[in-house]
Amino acid sequence: MSAAGGPTEHVGISNADPNEAISMPTKNMLIKNVPTRSTPAGGTLTPPRPAQNALATAGPRKKTPAWLALVWSVLLGALSILWLTGVLSFPFHGPGASLLDTTTPATAQVILLGIAIAGLALSAPHVLRVAPRSRTLAVTTLLLPVMLIYVIPDYRVLAAVGYLPVMLVMVISGTESLSIFGQVWTGSTVILAAGVLAGLCFTVLAVRSWPKTRTRISTPRLLLVGRVAAYIAAAIPVGYAVTRIAWALGIPLGISESFLKEIDQITNIGLGLGLFAIVGAILTLGLVQRWGTIFPRWMLGLRGRPVPVGLAVNSALIVSLLVSSAGIFIVRGALSGDLALAPNGAASQVAAWLPEMFWPLWGAALATAALAYRERRRRAAHDERQEHLLAAVDDRRTP
Length: 399
What we know:
There is one protein chain. The chain is mainly α. It has two domains: 61-209, no CATH class; 219-387, no CATH class. It has 14 helices and two strands, in the order E-H-E-H-H-H-H-H-H-H-H-H-H-H-H-H. A two-stranded antiparallel sheet has the order 1-2. The chain is globular, with a radius of gyration of 25 Å. The two termini are 31 Å apart. 31% of the residues are buried. Residues 1-59 have low confidence and may be disordered.
């Protein structure tokens, strides 16, 4: 199979005269039409394995986002019916600040049922491979991620993910029991998190529904865009981390001393989140560094191997969705003067909310850097295949 999923073209040259010159147009045609990596002893050029692609891959994996979106829609629809009929208790009843918490339970359940029906209708054609390429379909599909990622959730998903390493340390050190995970990952948080992941799947489907275009950004511009986006995406979490680390050290950076005393019980959690943000910033820089393409030497067992494109890109995209979702929620709260669930007096403390105001930009920059990284790796793999094919053709010309 070819990288595009179609039948493979084999170019047989075993019967050719090795002394016969192969013209450059012919060579270019071979390079263009057959992405070949090596020439076996039989003389037939065989295509390499398809390169990984974060949004579309050949074979069954191409249908994975569609299947995940379909299964999520069915499960959400079933849960919505059980909630509406009173068989199951509705988990969104406060004190959260999501759209599902701030409306009546009946209204929230109807909203979720409508989203489930829409998700089923939009994902099924992709599973059946009958979805057309249409701007209307793409834009319609994109409405679901907007609802699931930006309109419905609050801060809980990002907080629950950010607290995971902190909770692991607490459990390992014996300061907390395993029950702390249940306190953070409640039923409502799990549902919101599943919705964010479903939003990512529907985003993939929207991209696939968009008609193909021949517009192609130049490689130098691609490198520049990716580098600038990566630096922005790395700088913003560092700014957040500086304030939280300072508070843990007893320095009232951007806040009053009285407010620092009031939040003294949670500054250690802020320290953990700050350190986690710094690790994320370092990994973000890997999107534009060599060690983000090839595992460095100090990583035993992995050194020298290519970094899987999907691992880097999909991880970055998920984080970008989480910080964008939480950031937009915080921006809405700051603009309305209602920082939900923040400590009393947080609205008057600049450092308590200002770093988070840049989170939507962080998410957008991180997604841009990840997509630029994916395209750069794709082009590099394509150029490498062409070079290998050219070398194979030259080898056949040698008497």
